[in-house]
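A student in our group prepared the protein record below, which I am reviewing. This is what I was given:
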Amino acid sequence: MFAAYAARIDRDQPLNGLEVGERPAPTARSGWTTVNVKAASLNHHDLWSLRGVGLGEEALPMILGCDAAGIDEDGNEVVIHSVIGQSGHGVGPKEPRSILTERYQGTFAEQVTVPAWNVLPKPKELSFEEAACLPTAWLTAYRMLFTNAGVRPGDAVLVQGAGGGVATAAIVLGRAAGLRVYATSRDEAKRRRAVELGAYEVYEPGARLPERVDAVMETVGAATWSHSVKSLKPGGTLVISGATSGPNPKSAELNRIFFLELKVVGSTMGSKDELEDLLSFCAGAGVRPVIDSVLPLDRAREGFEKMAGGDLFGKIVLTV
């Protein structure tokens, strides 16, 4: 079958390890199901895999891709939850949690096999391309906002780094939930786009906000950390799910954190139940993922190059 896969690890030039071509079709295994992939979306996790983060040389070649929507063995339209092993379903009971492609072949292929427990019905209101955007970036944003930040309608939230998949999702979901969403970006065009998607106001990184916020959604890391901490009201919550600019800020702002009793919460992906809730929320509220571009699977390299260069707003989707 046709697939996009990691053939080798290159920590400095990750795209050197990306290959597109034929790979063996998945084989049947007890408790698992095979899905015919209709659409799959890219995540920064795929780039990190090509750098060898979470993926060892011994696992190569590895078909990349965490997210997908398609048709299962019974002809049902489905969405794949990409966290494997968190409940023991389809794997050994002692197997630790991992994301698809850290141990098992991924979704950038004509077919993918996953534990049957990891398959959810696709709402009819969502296209395959839209549904394929949800299981990683949008699920991460959903958990950050509504589980780990615990914000309520009317609260103020700052989203750092508008344009990235998680940040874009947080803007759209926050607006739909009645939050007052502020957003930052270095790029003027991305700031304008954030306003179009529902951001209340947008600023350059580090700019002073008109008010302190109840929560900050942080995916940028070192470059925006101090601004995130300083933007919170007393007792506010900073939720971090990534550090694309690096994990070591110049100042940890510890004095401000303890004096204002701020909460710093780490957040990774989300549960199957949260993905089910997210699917229902998108279908019922008319929320749709922001898609930057849709490419056929044989042009996967173009999508990877665009994501690596940061020249995108929303998700890149590969169709089979």
Summary: The chain has a mean pLDDT of 94. The first strand starts at residue 2 and ends at 6. The two ends are 11 Å apart (CA to CA).
